[in-house]
């Protein structure tokens, strides 16, 4: 399939009518010079089959583009964005650019953005303000905005109007077009905008430069079809598309062969993995059962939607080994009424039943979650149900958020009678419980010996090493630098609310709590 065919079905405005560049010779590359996003189009779920490609290559004429130039990418948001950054870094390197870790050195700066809450977006607008002076000092610097915010019409309009220092905006479905977008940005005086509202196909052979040599992200699916009423992700990431199992298994095997110790399988809703396959019946349980047999010590997955967490997956996870006994299971609210308005499609009771089943099958499982407080019209009683559910499940950690209206989502249109002070106060009360439970869970580790995957020196003290347990607890400990990248046994001597301190030991000398 060529680029033109690939573009079919995309929302394409051939060129900015004010942009004379499209008439030039290289116009074949710039069919989508000005393709603004549309949330309405993004909502449509096409019936057409997802096509898989292995034909990505950097056009020859672009190969020297990066010679003598450096790139810098700042990443906001979730692991999906972290991993997209690794792909973009791979493309930059393929173009001959070198990486740099300071904006002052960079010839291209990209902000890979997150749209999940208003404050995530405000950080990016703030950063664009800070970077403005660099554009003045270095007129040939390219400044780009990509990631989830680019998929929003309102953001693109705001940048067009207010942040004219930006040279290019491209969307989450346009990452493979980075070479073309960069080339156009070098040639054009206009802001280059290429944001496909509808997702593209799955491209398997995009290059990547991974950030670390110990842990790796592996996408298993893209997009989300759940449309929880508060959430922007189904609009910014398109419909659910699963990668073929053989591609994922091959990637994990390669990572194992390269010495990686941990992989995290990524998707917005990994439990829906495989539902879009038409030719095979194959789900997350099947995939995990295969990956379990690969010689890689640790396998995580995120994020699980409670609704699609099936019994077969539980059975497979119960086999343990490299499948870790840590389940991140976002609940969002403990109130069935609120869950209904959120369109989460499970009740409090169904969620608790799922937790019960997982605990029965995996007795030492640890649960963590995501919670939103202050949903439109959330009552004190409904909030209390969230607190009581937290206690009932006994989560060991949680990401907690105040509801943030996202333009274009159904919840953003709801009347809301909960004042911001009340929302803030609920968040504080919830966080007090979250801290209490984390501290309680940590205390149990005192005197125990745990397995730690050592990631490097501790941030605050280079004489101390830091790493994570199977259940993702941060451990700081004294040990030899040679331990970095290894899984070692550490005896816990001190438990804090969010981390553990310990000493490396040769042998297991106590019953492990993990
Ligand atoms: N796909 C994942 C969540 C991805 S977003 C899942 O369904 O579990 C990560 C978290 O951000 C969500 O779990 C939710 O708690 C929070 N979130 C999403 N939209 C939000 C909004 N509009 N306001 C506040 N928090 C939000
Ligand atoms: Fe958003 Fe819901 Fe999809 Fe998670 S499952 S990404 S919260 S719409
Ligand atoms: Fe943010 Fe997009 Fe991830 S909105 S949370 S970066 S999918």
Automatic annotation (TrEMBL):
Residues 210-440 form the Radical SAM core domain. GO terms for cellular component: cytosol. Its EC number is 2.8.4.3. One of its GO terms (molecular function) is tRNA-2-methylthio-N(6)-dimethylallyladenosine(37) synthase activity. Residues 443-506 form the TRAM domain. It comes from the Bacteria. [4Fe-4S] cluster 1 binds at residues 78, 114, 148. It catalyses: N(6)-dimethylallyladenosine(37) in tRNA + (sulfur carrier)-SH + AH2 + 2 S-adenosyl-L-methionine = 2-methylsulfanyl-N(6)-dimethylallyladenosine(37) in tRNA + (sulfur carrier)-H + 5'-deoxyadenosine + L-methionine + A + S-adenosyl-L-homocysteine + 2 H(+). Its main location: cytoplasm. Keywords: 4Fe-4S, Cytoplasm, Iron, Iron-sulfur, Metal-binding, S-adenosyl-L-methionine, Transferase, tRNA processing. Binds 2 [4Fe-4S] clusters. One cluster is coordinated with 3 cysteines and an exchangeable S-adenosyl-L-methionine. It holds the Pfam family UPF0004. Belongs to the methylthiotransferase family. MiaB subfamily. This is tRNA-2-methylthio-N(6)-dimethylallyladenosine synthase. It comes from Cytobacillus depressus. The gene is miaB.
